[in-house]
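#structure-requests
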Amino acid sequence: MIRLVASDIDGTMIGEKNKMTEQNRKAIQDMQQSNVDFTICTGKPYAMVKNFCHDVHANYGIFGNGNQIIDLKNGKEIFRKTLTQEEINACIQIAKKEKLHIHLYTENEVITPELRYMDLRNFILKDSIFSSDLDFKIVPNIEEYIENQHPIVFKLIISSPSSLLKLQEELNQKMNLTIYRVSKANQYKDKIINKEYEYLDITPSNTNKNEALTTLSHYLGVSSSEIMAIGDNLNDIDMIQNSGIGVAVANSYDAVKKVATYTTARSVDESGFAEAIYKWGLREV
C-alpha cells in the first residue's frame, strides 16, 4: 500500500510548455482524497516553487535536490544543508580559471554575473506556472560579492556549451561534494532558452533526493516500501531505485528507465504522472 508519493516537477508533472494537464491535476486531488501524502521532490529552490506547491496542495517539499525539506502544512523546516565558504570559493576559482559560467542559489536568490543558462531559464520561468518568489541578483564579481556578503548558499551551478566531464572528475578528486552532470543537448535541448549546454549541479556531500526522502520517511514513520517515487531526470535515479515503486515517465532519460519498477506508456504531456498514480492502486473518484 502506497502512503507517500514523491514526484519531480519538470519533465514529470509539467511538460515543455510549462503546463500541467488536467489529468495530472486530478490525479493529485484523487491521491489526497485517498489519504496518500504528496511530496514535491525537485532540484529547484523552495522560493521558486513555493506558490506551485501551494497550488497543488503538496503536503511536503524536498528542494535543491535534497538540501532542504519543509513540512508545507505548517511551514516547518525539517532539514537543511548548505555549502561551506571554502567549497563555494573553490568552485568559483575553478570556474573562473576555465572561464565557465557560474551562478549560486541562496534560499531566496539567484546570484549571477549574467543570465545565460539555467539562471536565464529560471528567470524566464519566474512568471510562468511557478509564479516564483525567487529574486535575481546580477553582480559583476561573484567572488567579491561572496567575500563581502557571506550569503548562505544551498547550491551552485557551473555551465558550459561543451562537455564538463573532465571538470566533474577534477572536482570529485579535490572535494567531497554531490555533483550531477546534466546534458541539455540533442533531444534534451533546452527549449525554454533555445540552447544546448551542459551543467554541473553542485550541492553539499551526500545531498540527493533519496537521502532527503529517507529523512522525510523517518519523520513520517513511513517505510521505503510504502513510497512511490516518480521522475524523469538523472537526479531522480536514486529515489526511484530505492523506493517501493519507482516510476519513470516515458520521456525520461534512458538511465532512469533502467532502474525504474515501471515506465509509463505516456509522456509528461500525455499525463504520464496520472498514469502512474492510477496504475499503482489509487482509484479514480
